[in-house]
Write a structure and sequence with these properties.
The chain is an all-alpha fold and 191 residues long. The chain is 76% helix and 0% strand. Helix 2 crosses helix 4 and helix 3 crosses helix 4.
């Protein structure tokens, strides 16, 4: 998964808000809530299947975040990955507790709740790969870097990019081809 420059800025703002929250700044929690609540609510709702339960789980996520913000390590995961794992676990906990309270779960059905969401480890690996892609992209010369980002992040055709940049189509294709080759080499070194 490649990250667009705007989402990189959003991730950096979120990281900064997490750091501010860890140091006790209450306003940072509002910033984090505004940036993440829709996504985290979606995770809770998908797992719980009930809006009220999802809202309660989401509230639990932010209460836990307030208490545990100092445990966030930006070296291990992006803020949204860490919070998504928080939300998933909180929703699963509520799902288990709700079924136990209702008494509708037979003992053999009390096994862990299946979840199609990726495991936290997979989320961390994806985040590391994503960071590696951007590091390698940033190492490219300007022309191939801009061409690749425009083509792959903005979905523009080589012809459109060539026209915008004022170069022949063949030149644009060469920039992309050479850039992708260098990008592949850089990524393979990082594995």
């Amino acid at each position: 998964m490649l990250m667009q420059p705007a989402s990189r800025e959003a991730r950096e703002r979120l990281k900064a808000a997490m750091e501010r929250l860890a140091s006790g700044e209450r306003v940072a929690l509002e910033d984090i809530y505004r940036a993440t609540s829709a996504k985290l609510f979606g995770i809770c709702l998908r797992i719980l299947g009930d809006e009220k339960e999802a809202e309660d789980a989401l509230q639990d996520v932010y209460i836990s975040l307030w208490r545990k913000a100092d445990r966030y390590d930006p070296e291990r995961a992006s803020p949204i990955s860490w919070l998504a794992t928080f939300a998933r676990n909180r929703a699963i906990d509520r799902l288990r507790v709700g079924k136990v309270r209702q008494g509708s779960v037979p003992e053999d059905a009390a096994a862990p709740v299946a979840d199609r969401a990726p495991l936290a480890e997979a989320i961390l690996i994806d985040a590391e790969r994503e960071a590696r892609v951007h590091t390698c992209l940033d190492a490219l010369e300007e022309n191939p870097r801009v061409a690749i980002r425009t083509a792959f992040f903005e979905g523009r055709t080589y012809a459109e990019i060539a026209e915008t940049r004022g170069v022949p189509l063949g030149t644009m294709k060469s920039w992309v081809r050479r850039g992708l080759r260098k990008l592949k080499t850089c990524l393979e070194k990082g594995e």
